[in-house]
Design a protein that fits this description.
The chain has 181 residues and is an all-alpha fold. The chain has 5 helices and no strands. The longest helix has 31 residues.
Length: 181
C-alpha cells in the first residue's frame, strides 16, 4: 500500500492540471492515470485491513474500518473539493488537498505494525539423520528411503513414519527443501 500511496500522490498532482486542459486526450490520460493509481492503492487495501484484526474479528473489523473511512473520507472530500474550487477558481488546488491527505495516509501506513509472520525456519545446509545411515527423502515429512524402493509417499516400500525412536524425534516436521520449523 505504501507504493500505491506514493504513486497516488504523484498522480493527483498530475491529474488535475491535465483535466484543466479540457482536451479529450488530456482527459483520457487523466482518467487512465487515475484508475492506475486507484488500483495500486485499493488492491492491497483489503488484505492490509484484514490482517490488522484477530482471526475471529477480521470480517467485522475490516468492514467497520472500511465503511467508516468511506463515509468520513468519501462524504467530506467532495464538499471540501467544491469549496476549494469555489474559493480559488482553480481545480489544481484540489490535487494539492488530495496529496496532503495521501501524505497523512502515508505517515499512518508507516506507523502500522508489520503483519507478516516472522520466519521461524532455519535453513540447514543438509538434513541430518540421527541413528540412521539412510538418507532423508527431501520434500516429505520424516520419510526415509528403503533400499530398492521409490521415494514417493504411499508407494510400496516407503513409510511415512519415522524410524527414529520417539524420544529423539524433533517435535516439528521436515518441510520441502530440508527446512525445519
Amino acid at each position: 500500500m505504501i507504493v500505491g500511496t506514493i504513486v497516488s500522490i504523484a498522480a493527483v498532482l498530475v491529474i488535475f492540471p491535465l483535466a484543466e486542459h479540457g482536451t479529450v486526450a488530456s482527459m483520457d490520460a487523466a482518467i487512465i492515470l487515475g484508475f492506475f493509481a486507484t488500483g495500486l492503492l485499493f488492491g492491497p487495501m483489503y488484505t492490509c485491513l484484514t490482517e490488522l484484526f484477530p482471526r475471529e474479528q477480521r470480517q467485522t473489523g475490516m468492514g467497520i474500518a472500511f465503511q467508516t473511512g468511506a463515509v468520513l473520507g468519501g462524504g467530506t472530500a467532495p464538499v471540501i473539493a467544491n469549496r476549494i474550487v469555489a474559493g480559488t477558481g482553480n481545480a489544481s488546488n484540489v490535487g494539492y488537498y488530495l496529496a496532503a491527505v495521501l501524505v497523512v495516509e502515508l505517515v499512518c501506513l508507516t506507523m502500522l505494525p508489520e503483519t507478516a509472520p516472522a520466519s521461524k525456519c532455519s535453513f540447514p545446509a543438509r538434513p541430518r539423520s540421527r541413528r540412521s545411515s539412510k538418507p532423508f527423502v527431501r520434500g516429505w515429512p520424516s520419510t526415509r528411503i528403503r533400499s530398492g524402493s521409490p521415494a514417493v509417499p504411499g508407494a510400496s516400500g516407503c513409510s511415512m513414519r519415522s524410524t527414529t525412536p520417539r524420544s529423539s524425534r524433533r517435535s516439528t516436521p521436515c518441510w520441502p527443501g530440508g527446512r525445519r520449523c
